[in-house]
Amino acid sequence: DTAAPWTTRRTAGLGVGRVSHSFMVIPDCPYPLLGRDLLTKLGAQIHFSAEGTRVLDQAGQPIHVLTLGLADEYPLHETPMTPDAGVPPWLQQFPSAWAETGGTGPPVFTELKPGANPARVRQYPMSLEAKKGITPHIRRLLDLGVLRPCQSAWNTPLLPVRKPDSNDYRPVQDLREVNKRVIDIHPTVPNPYTLWSSVPPSHTWYTVLDLKDAFFSLPLAPKSQDLFTFEWHDPDKGVNGQLTWTRLPQGLKNSPTIFDEDLHEDLVEFHSQNPHLALLQYVDDLLLAAEGRDTCLTG
Question: What are the residue boundaries of the Reverse transcriptase domain, all occurrences included (predicted)?
Answer without folding.
Answer: 142-299
